[in-house]
Specification:
The protein is built from five helices and 33 strands. The protein folds into three domains: about 90 residues, no CATH class; about 100 residues, no CATH class; about 150 residues, no CATH class. The chain has about 450 residues and is of the alpha/beta class.
């Protein structure tokens, strides 16, 4: 005789298998990263499980029984097993993103072979796309042609297997649409096979590089350079156009460029030196992030920092809970948290918003623009020359305001609850307005020599 009670265990088991199977299937497609989805959204599995149980109890009450709402041992073991499976995939993916695909290839011996491709004549301003899986070096030439050579790399347990795989590997130059494409062919075997390419292109050609894995180096180009989906270290030197880089992992260094620099994604350290354009970095980089001599300013956006400099004649460095800016010849605006901030010689307007990190701002010459510093759970230190003229309003909740500047026009008060306040004018002229506010920390004004 049939029992009208819903069979909850089979419903949950089937749906959870479909859900996890779909995630693992999507993981096999390039661009879908299971680790990022799982690490943020894994509680949805518990919500999904609970929703099924609520449905079973509601439906079961219609049949004079609630057994379908019980969590069975089989469901628990299935859930834990699927978590272990997905967790293993996530750990492997994190290791591959952090250390590269070769992390899973230890124990295999590397074999190498030469790669040579016949030169291809192209227009001097050709659009050239390089698709790779391995280290890529791009250099410029005054000749209107593309030249490619390099090495085949195979990791295998024995030499005969390596020779068999290497025998299928080559590279080709293909005329595609209004441009040319360079890519390896016969590259199979997953992370066991890579192709290092040394590419020479016309100096005025427009180059785009897409690399599955491996380092990239490009230099002496007169036109814009684009690098997409990088999975290794990148170095760009002496370019006459804009530089656009999308990172997945690795370090970046850009130097001596006459265009704008835009870096996005995630990775390790970033360094930009002597850029006559602007520098924009948008993403999550473990750092350090360094920039120096950026003529048209800097924009840095991450999950906790939003920094804008209109000009940087000195240097900026961010990383390990510290942000240092020296000689910013223009306006400075930063909003962040959990950072100790040090700023020296900003010549324009300064606005700082921070939380849980000390802020120190120092001027070697009297400031001419307004200064605003808002902090909490940490201190503020401001250094000014004695010859400065300014109007100040400093408020400290549950902390002290200490000042080396004394004048009849400066009024200092302190409440019974421990709040401190300093307000008034200093100097002979009408100077910029200085606003300082913090809580559970101190405010200190001192004279700089």
């Amino acid at each position: 005789m049939l029992n009208g009670r819903p069979r909850g265990s089979s419903i949950f088991s089937g749906l959870i298998l479909i859900f996890v199977g779909a995630l693992l299937l999507l993981h096999n497609y390039r661009g879908f990263e299971l680790s990022r989805v799982f690490l943020h959204w894994w509680p949805l599995l518990l919500i999904f499980w609970g929703a099924i149980k609520l449905y079973e109890r509601t439906a079961g009450s219609r049949y004079a029984g609630t057994g379908g709402a019980r969590i069975t041992p089989g469901e628990v073991f299935l859930y834990l097993g699927l978590l272990a499976l997905v967790g293993t995939v996530v750990v492997v993916e994190q290791f591959r993103n952090r250390f590269g695909p070769d992390i899973v290839d230890f124990g295999r011996e590397a074999f190498h072979g030469d790669l040579e491709v016949a030169p291809e004549a192209v227009p001097a301003n050709a659009r050239i796309t390089i698709q790779g899986r391995g280290n890529i070096t791009v250099r410029s030439s005054d000749e209107p042609e593309i030249r490619v050579n390099g090495k085949k790399n195979v990791r295998s347990w024995n030499e005969s297997e390596a020779e068999r795989l290497a025998g299928r590997i080559s590279a080709e130059i293909v005329h595609s649409g209004d441009g040319y494409e360079i890519h390896p062919i016969g590259v199979r075997g997953g992370s066991r096979v890579s192709v290092d390419m040394d590419v020479v292109v016309p100096v005025k050609s427009f180059v785009t590089i897409r690399n599955e894995r491996g380092d990239i180096s490009i230099s002496d180009m007169a036109t814009p350079v684009t690098i997409e989906g990088a999975n290794g270290d990148i170095e760009v030197r002496n370019t006459g156009g804009d530089v656009s880089i999308e990172m997945r992992r690795g370090d970046v260094k850009v130097s001596d460029t006459k265009g704008n620099v835009h870096i996005s994604g995630r990775g390790g350290s970033v360094e930009v030196v002597e850029a006559t354009g602007s520098f924009t970095i948008n993403g999550e980089f473990v750092g350090p992030i360094r920039a120096s001599k950026v003529t048209k300013g800097l924009r840095f956006v991450s999950h906790r920092t939003d920094l804008t400099l209109t000009q940087l004649t000195g240097h900026m460095q961010a990383g390990s809970g510290n942000l240092e800016i020296v000689d910013a010849r223009g306006n400075l605006n930063v909003k962040t948290r959990d950072e100790d901030i040090g700023i020296e010689n900003a010549s324009g307007k300064v606005r700082v918003e921070n939380h849980n990190g000390n802020v120190e701002v120092r001027f070697s010459t009297p400031p001419k623009e307004d200064v605003e510093i808002y902090n909490s759970s940490a201190s503020i230190t401001l250094g000014l020359p004695e010859s400065s003229n300014f109007e100040i309003a400093a408020d400290c909740h549950s902390g002290d305001v200490d000042s080396e500047f004394e004048a009849d026009s400066l009024k200092r008060t302190k409440t019974e609850s421990g709040d401190s306040h300093l307000e008034g004018r200093y100097g002979k002229g009408r100077g910029p307005k200085i606003t300082l506010k913090t809580s559970y920390g101190s405010i200190s004004l001192h004279k700089t020599s």
